[in-house]
Each structure stands twice: as structure tokens, then as C-alpha cells.
Design goal:
The structure holds two protein chains of two kinds. Chain A is an alpha/beta fold. Chain A is built from 14 helices and twelve strands. An eight-stranded mixed β-sheet of chain A has the order 6-7-8-3-9-10-12-11, with helices on both faces. In chain A, strands 2-1-4-5 form a four-stranded antiparallel β-sheet, covered by helices on one side. In chain A, helix 4 crosses helix 5, helix 5 crosses helix 7 and helix 7 packs parallel to helix 8. Chain A is globular, with a radius of gyration of 21 Å. Chain B is α/β, with parallel strands linked by helices. Chain B starts with a strand and ends with a helix. In chain B, 46% of the residues are buried. Classes of the chains: A alpha/beta, B alpha/beta. At the A-B interface, helix 8, helix 9, helix 10, helix 11 and helix 12 of A face helix 6, helix 7 and helix 9 of B.
Chain lengths: 333, 327
């Protein structure tokens, strides 16, 4: 499989009154064609800002300060707004979290979808509307003709989320970025929405990035997983390997927090939270919470080390280890 | 185990102003909560689980039904019942930030719940406050802080401290962890388990997070459109469920283990409006197993195994029980 998207050393900062809030700090990520990647992080880990940085939709006071976003050989960061528009919505579809908040409350949902269609296709409004209705039907909305004339507030949460998906898919993008697409939905609706996204992604042979804090979604739907902490990827690899044996101390802690993993013998959890983005620690960003932190961790930032062919961990403990890197696990268990 | 609370045919209707319509939030629900257990109430949004919790504390008045606490009927809420209920039953809310008064410090928040008890001398009251805050592991340095200065996990700890300060016997936990991140959620769950062990508090845990319910609860009821469709012990409901809704609900949960394949048992459509409830079984319009009978006749409650009850025409009774009692 060849690469579809490659993000290199991406930094996004917010310039606020109190100083510089460093949200994305050297993000490295790549997605192959046909691959489904799950990006997992807790709230505040920079997941959404990272997604917005990919399509350059970070709003002031935020700014993508450096890094590359290479989509099929083109660095999107080097493009101007009108060139970028050819990619947005056409090549890369974004399903935003909080569907109701991201739909225009004053425009009928069918017209909103038609607008997106017309932005990338020639045709008249009537044809576009017809397309929108077909798309609404494809995402499983009953009575699509009537629903196309509804305003966002007339729809339920699950329905609004389906409209967002229709919006993102109307131009058959090659890459779908779903930012917490099922957050806040009931489990049965969540399952329906995920079925739908997976079905469409498979039919259109698209790739997907699922940004979520729900490890269940990733375990059940994705091929690859990347764990995000303070705007960096700390661990990345195939889903099956990860859930069997997570390597980074943070990932282990995250997985141990799952009720079904805790069982009778309660595993010790690390205290504290994400570092303040205004005053990031030196060295490894995780060192203040890490039970294995050494002097080196406090001073030097670790790089994303390959521990096996397709598995990487950003931790000093793994430097020099190329195979069989399970040393952390024993200590934390 | 003795029953701490008994709920019989609880119904809660909310009239819609300006119309003759009513929203039936809770529909003839009966169950019992035993002393020292954690009873889980699960269901999707709009299923009426929070309304049940609020009725139990008499925060809203039930439209119909009998509520008993230690055998005492408190459905007709009077002064005498109020003094008992208010001190022995407490609640922890979903969103810790919005359920705390932003203009009160941590200490004042907890102390205020005890001020209601006028017979409690000031010295004792202060001891109780610091005991409660110690139990939830809020450090002395945070006593004078305001809610916005605390992390979400600490805020929920304050919410819990406020609930346990009057030494209640029973706490309604209304989605106490659903707005929290995974690791913080685990800390709060640990805290709740610890408090139950130490003080023998009985919980009603309302949640849509099924893995937490499975981990924390002893017995579980699944609600759909204001009705309990199935209830029993955690093992019965999670491993050996009978109701189609339970099947669909549990099949929808995405387990954090790639080795478990996703089940494709699904309901079609969305939850109907609780305003004009359908005739017959409420699930009939979405149920893959529905027959004509289901659309016409309301299903009885059937005991499929000792202590496990299912509200479905298709369930097979191991011993049929009177329809009248459990509705």
C-alpha cells in the first residue's frame, strides 16, 4: 500500500494573552491508501486541533507554525486558500464533532449538502439538490425528500450526525477525517453510524482517520492506532498488537483505566493530567507523570523509535531495542 | 439481603403546557434496591432513567405508584418523610462543573448541605465536612478554591463529598462519570467502590456506559421508553439477556478488544417520541423479532430465570408470575 497522507513535524500554537499555548507539538503521522487509522487521546490532547491543522482550518489566535502535510505528494501547507479549496471537501472530507453546532442553523440541510456539491462540481441547483437527497438516503435517513427541507434544529442528534456524514461524503473523498463523529450519541445510534461510515469507506475504497477518545471504536473499526499525548503521537502500530501489549507507559495507563481491563486485581493508575500547554515540561512531555522517568527523560525529548517493522514508540526506554520491547509492561503491572 | 427501597408501578407523566399531550417519562416501573448493593439503571437518552432517579429522591413528584424506603411509604411526601429522606438519600450529578455553585468554595459547598440540619452543633459540622473531604481525597490546600480552579475529576470529588457529608444510606449517581476522561473516570469509580465498602452505602447508578455498569453494579435494569424491559443480576443481563432491546443495546457496545468481533444485531430507526406511545410493545416498530401480537398487546413481565425478568412476548418463563404485581 502506498502513502496517502503524511504529516511531518506539525506544530500548531495558539497565541493567547497569557503566552503561547502549544497544542500540537511535532505531530508525525501517516495514512496509507485504504487504511483506517484511529487517533486516540484524552480531552485536551490536541486531537481536534490536529485534524483542523490538516485542512488548515485552525482559527485565530491559533496558527500552524511549522511542519508539512503531504497529501499524495502535494504539501498542503504550501498552497494558498483557493488551491486548498480544491482539496477540502473534495479529496479530504471532514466529519466534525458536535454536528448540530457545525451545521448552519439558518439553511435547510439539503441545501447545505447541495452547496458542498456545487463547490466542486458543475451543475445546477436542482441537480445538486437531487444529489443531496440521494446522499441523505445513502446515510440511512428515512423520508430523505422531506428531511432535506428540514433545518438542523428539527433533527435529532443521530440524524444531524448523519447529515454531517452526507456532507463529508457527497464528493466521494479519498480521505475521511472523522473527529469524534459518534461522541454524545447513544450506543445503538453510535453502532449504526459506525456501520454506515465503515460501509461507505469500504465501498469507495477511501482511507479514514478516526479521532476519538473511545478505545472501543478503534479496537472494533480501525487497522492502525495512534495514541496522542500533549499534541504528539507517543505510540503507533497495528490495533491487534497494541491491544495485546501496549508499550508506552501512557498507553498502558490508558488501557488499564478501562473498566473491563481492571478486573479484580486493581491496577495502579498514574495520577495527574495533561501538561499545561502554556508551560510544557522539558524533555519528554510525559516525564512528570511517568513512573520510569530518568534524568535523560527530563532533559532530552525522545524520538518516535521503531520497535518492530510497523510499530513505533516515543520513549527513551525503547531506544536501542529493535525487537521484543516489552520491558515496561512488567514494571507497571 | 433486605430491600432498602421498593418501587411499585412508578409512573411519571409530564404535561406539555398549552396542549392536552403528556410525555410519559416513566411508565409503570417496578423494582427493588437491596441494602448495600449497586443497582444499575441503563438505557439511552430519553429512556426515563434520570426521571426514575429523581422520583426516588422526590425531586420530582411521581404521578402514580408507591415508593417505600425501609418499608415506609413515602410516596405522599410530608414533613416527617422529608426529614428522613433528605438526610438519608443524596444525589451526585452528571456534570460536576455545572452542578457546583461557582461562587462557593469547596468547603462551603460541602458545609452547606449540613447546615440544613439545625440541631448539629457547629464543631461537629466542621468535623463532618473535613471527614467527607478527606474521604474523597481533596487536599487541605484546595478547601478554599472555587470550582473553576479545580480539574474535572476534583470537581466530581467535591460533588461526591457533598453527597456523603450527611452520612446517607442511599445515593443516586446520575451518570457521574460520563463527562470525564477515561483515567479520571477510573479514579472516580474506584472512589465510589471504596466508599461503598467503608460505609455500606447503597447506590442507584444511572448510566449509558455499559462497561462501567458491568464493572460496578450488582444488579441491572435496562430501560426503554420509560419501561424496564429486562432486569436481573449483572451476569444474567450481560451474559444471558433475552429481550431484543437488551440484545441490540449490548451488541452495539464496541468492546476495547479487537479480538471480539462486532455483533451485527441492530434495531432499525430511532427511539419513538414518548408523547404518543405506540400500542402493544413499545419496541415493536424497531424490533427484528416483532410479530402481529407485539403490535397489539402489551407484553407481560416474564421471569426467565430466578431473579431475571423480561418484558417480551417471546421470552419463555421458568415460572410465570402474576401480571398485576409487576405490570
Amino acid at each position: 500500500m502506498n502513502q496517502l497522507l503524511k504529516i511531518e513535524d506539525l506544530h500548531t500554537y495558539f497565541y493567547v494573552r497569557k503566552g503561547v499555548s502549544k497544542i500540537v507539538n511535532g505531530l508525525n503521522l501517516s495514512v496509507r491508501k485504504g487504511e483506517l487509522l484511529g487517533v486516540v487521546g484524552e480531552s485536551g490532547s490536541g486531537k481536534t486541533v490536529a485534524a483542523m491543522s490538516i485542512v488548515d482550518r485552525v482559527r485565530t489566535p491559533g496558527k500552524v507554525v511549522s511542519g508539512k502535510v503531504i497529501y499524495q505528494g502535494t504539501d498542503l501547507r504550501g498552497l494558498n486558500e483557493s488551491e486548498l479549496r480544491k482539496f477540502r471537501g473534495k479529496e479530504i472530507g471532514l466529519i466534525a464533532a458536535n454536528a448540530r453546532g457545525n451545521l448552519n442553523p439558518l439553511i435547510k440541510v439539503g441545501d447545505q449538502i447541495a452547496d458542498v456539491y456545487l463547490a466542486h462540481n458543475k451543475g445546477d441547483l436542482r441537480e445538486a439538490k437531487q444529489r443531496a437527497i440521494e446522499m441523505l438516503r445513502a446515510v440511512g435517513i428515512n423520508g430523505a425528500e422531506q428531511r432535506a427541507n428540514a433545518y438542523p434544529h428539527e433533527l435529532s442528534g443521530g440524524m444531524a450526525q448523519r447529515v454531517m456524514i452526507a456532507l463529508a461524503l457527497i464528493n466521494s473523498p479519498n480521505l475521511l477525517i472523522a473527529d469524534d463523529a459518534t461522541n454524545g450519541l447513544d450506543v445503538t445510534v453510535q453502532a449504526q453510524i459506525m456501520d454506515l461510515i465503515l460501509d461507505i469507506v469500504e465501498k469507495r475504497k477511501a482511507s479514514g482517520i478516526f479521532i476519538t477518545h473511545d478505545l472501543g471504536v478503534v479496537a472494533q473499526c480501525c487497522d492502525e492506532i495512534a495514541i496522542m499525548y500533549a499534541g504528539q503521537i507517543v505510540e503507533k502500530g497495528p490495533v491487534t498488537t497494541f491491544f495485546e501489549e501496549p508499550q508506552h507507559p501512557y498507553s498502558q495507563n490508558l488501557l488499564n483505566s478501562l473498566p473491563e481491563r481492571r478486573g479484580k486485581e486493581k491496577k495502579i493508575l498514574l495520577s495527574g493530567g495533561l501538561p499545561n500547554p502554556l508551560e510544557l515540561p522539558s524533555g519528554c512531555l510525559f516525564h512528570p507523570r511517568c513512573p520510569y522517568a530518568t534524568e535523560k527523560c527530563r532533559q532530552e525529548e525522545p524520538s518516535l523509535v521503531k520497535v518492530s517493522e510497523n510499530y513505533s514508540v516515543k520513549c527513551h526506554l525503547f531506544e536501542g531495542i529493535t525487537e521484543e520491547g516489552g520491558i515496561v509492561d512488567e514494571k507497571l503491572a | 439481603m433486605k430491600n432498602l427501597l421498593e418501587i411499585e408501578s412508578l409512573t411519571k407523566l409530564f404535561p406539555i403546557s398549552g396542549t392536552k399531550d403528556v410525555v410519559s417519562a416513566v411508565n409503570n416501573v417496578s423494582f427493588e434496591i437491596r441494602e448495600g448493593e449497586t443497582f444499575g439503571l441503563i438505557g439511552e437518552s430519553g429512556s426515563g432513567k434520570s426521571s426514575v432517579g429523581r422520583c426516588l429522591l422526590n425531586l420530582i413528584n411521581p404521578t402514580k405508584g408507591v415508593l417505600r424506603y425501609k418499608g415506609m411509604d413515602y410516596s405522599n411526601f410530608g414533613k416527617k418523610e422529608e426529614s428522613i429522606i433528605r438526610s438519608e438519600m443524596q444525589m451526585v450529578f452528571q456534570d460536576p462543573y455545572y452542578s457546583l455553585n461557582p461562587r462557593k468554595t469547596v468547603w462551603d459547598t460541602v458545609e452547606d448541605t449540613l447546615r440544613v440540619n439545625k440541631t448539629l452543633p457547629e464543631g461537629e459540622r466542621k468535623t463532618k465536612v473535613s471527614e467527607a473531604l478527606d474521604k474523597v481525597q481533596i487536599s487541605r490546600n484546595d478547601y478554599e478554591k472555587y470550582p473553576h480552579q479545580l480539574s474535572a475529576g476534583q470537581q466530581q470529588r467535591v460533588g461526591i463529598a457533598r453527597a456523603i457529608a450527611p452520612n446517607p444510606k442511599f445515593i443516586v449517581l446520575d451518570e457521574p462519570t460520563s463527562s470525564l476522561d477515561l483515567s479520571v473516570r477510573a479514579e472516580i469509580i474506584d472512589l465510589l467502590v471504596k466508599l461503598q465498602k467503608e460505609d455500606g452505602i447503597t447506590y442507584l447508578f444511572i448510566s449509558h456506559d455499559l462497561s462501567t455498569v458491568q464493572y460496578l453494579c450488582h444488579r441491572v435494569a435496562i430501560m426503554y421508553l420509560g419501561k424496564i424491559v429486562e432486569y436481573g443480576t449483572v451476569d444474567q443481563v450481560f451474559r444471558n439477556h433475552n429481550h431484543p432491546y437488551s440484545k441490540a443495546l449490548l451488541a452495539s457496545v464496541m468492546k476495547a478488544d479487537p479480538k471480539i468481533p462486532r455483533s451485527n444485531y441492530r434495531l432499525s430507526g430511532e427511539i419513538p417520541s414518548p408523547i404518543n406511545l405506540p400500542k402493544g410493545c413499545f419496541l415493536a416498530s424497531r424490533c427484528p423479532e416483532a410479530e402481529d401480537k407485539c403490535r397489539e398487546i402489551e407484553p407481560p413481565l416474564i421471569e426467565v430465570e430466578k431473579g431475571q425478568f423480561v418484558h417480551c412476548h417471546h421470552a419463555k418463563a421458568y415460572e410465570k408470575i402474576e401480571n398485576k404485581i409487576y405490570g
